[in-house]
Amino acid sequence: MRLLVTTSHSLLLVDTDSGSAQPLHRGSGLYYGIAQKHDTIYVAARHRLVSSAREQAQERGSILLFDRALRLCGELEAPFPLRDMHAIAWHGERLWIAASFEDMIAVYDGANWERWFPLGEGSAGPADLHHFNSFMFDDEVVWLLAHKRGASELLAFAKQTRQLQRRIALGDCGHNVWREGGQMFTCSSTDGKVLGDRGFSLETGGFPRGVAFDADTRCVGVSAVAERKDRDFTTGKLMVFDREWRLQRTIELPGEGLILDLLPLPAGFEDRPRGGRLLRWLRSALGGSRAQGSRTQR
Q1: d(CA 214, CA 101)
Q2: CATH superfamily of this structure's domain 2-286
Q3: Does residue 253 contact residue 259 with C-beta atoms inside 8 Å?
Q4: How far apart are the C-alpha atoms of 108 and 90, rounded to whole Å?
Q5: Partner residues linked to 37 by β-bridges
Q6: Is residue 54 within 8 Å of 46, Cβ to Cβ?
Q7: DSSP label at residue 225
């Protein structure tokens, strides 16, 4: 499987068979959510690292656009700050963006921007009380995954009215949400596990976040657990499983820091030649990884 992978420092193209990883874009990190619509790949870029001395309140992220040759071809900027962006998704001809800093979902219809506060806008300003970070869409429902450095919930909102309809407790500091065989799944990041709401449990260790599937393979991103100041300089990994969740191989990404999101490379998208700029180049450029710290993650 060929994967687009976002990290603290890069948008990468990774081949899970060979283990090679090529940087497609750098310098706008932290990179997070990835989505596709027609001939374009959309990537959330915070323009600030977790380790940055600049206050998060000053962050103003954007959405980078890449064409079928995986070349940067544009940028979307909202008329309001996009801070602490997580997952993004195209659905119903709209781009949905989780902006966790102020418990907001930004929605872009191709011409206009909207701010949606699913559980209400805080009266005292940005609060990050719920940490909305991931989406799943059913016919009439949008599911949001929320946590606040602890127990996670899946929240079901009616698409038309955006009224809360249902809550499901699942995982701890959860990221990503998907359904298979009637079971809801998430990466329970603090637990270091992939969990299902009907009893499925798979231990990954580390801080799992970011999942991708194709017909034969599953892949989970696993970040190293470290103190906040060190997270951008750690070595994360991709765990590659078969469809029955049997581990096949592990691919390390030296010095890339956090692994944030994964997307199988869509058909018709192809990287242009890059002269062999693989992870060895990244390791040299970044000077290797720094020491890891405590178990606390976000």
Answers
A1: 32
A2: YVTN repeat-like/Quinoprotein amine dehydrogenase (2.130.10.10)
A3: yes
A4: 9
A5: 40
A6: no
A7: P
Q: What does the alpha-carbon distance between residue 98 and residue 118 come to, in Å, rounded to a whole number?
A: 11
pLDDT in tens, 145-187: 998 778 999 999 999 999 999 999 999 999 999 999 889 999 9
Contact between 291 and 232 under an 8 Å Cβ cutoff? The reply is no
> pTM of the predicted model, to two decimals?
0.89
Return d(Cα 39, Cα 101) in angstroms, integer. 30
C-alpha R_g of the chain: 18
Q: How many residues does the chain have?
A: 298
Structure tokens, 153: 């919930």
Instruction: Scan for tokens 């809801």, then name that residue.
Output: 184
**Which pLDDT tens digit goes with each residue over 124-141?**
455 788 999 999 999 899
Q: Which of 267, 272, 264 is nearest to 73 (CA)?
A: 272
What is the C-alpha separation between 183 and 78, in angstroms, rounded? 35
Q: How far apart are CA 108 and CA 39, in angstroms?
A: 17
Cβ–Cβ contacts within 10 Å for residue 243, how many? 11
Residue where the block lists tokens 């930004």: 106
Can you read off the two tokens belonging to residue 71? 């070349």
Per-residue pLDDT of 93-133, as tens digits, reads 999 999 999 999 999 999 999 999 999 875 445 578 899 99
Planar angle of CA 153, 157, 160, nearest 5 degrees: 170
Which of 11, 113, 107 is CA-nearest to residue 66? Answer: 11
Question: For residue 267, what are its two tokens?
Answer: 């058909």
Q: How far apart are CA 114 and CA 155, in angstroms?
A: 20
Q: Give the Cα separation of 245 and 223 in Å (integer).
A: 19
* Cis? peptide before 265, omega within 30° of 0: no
**What letter would DSSP give residue 205?**
-
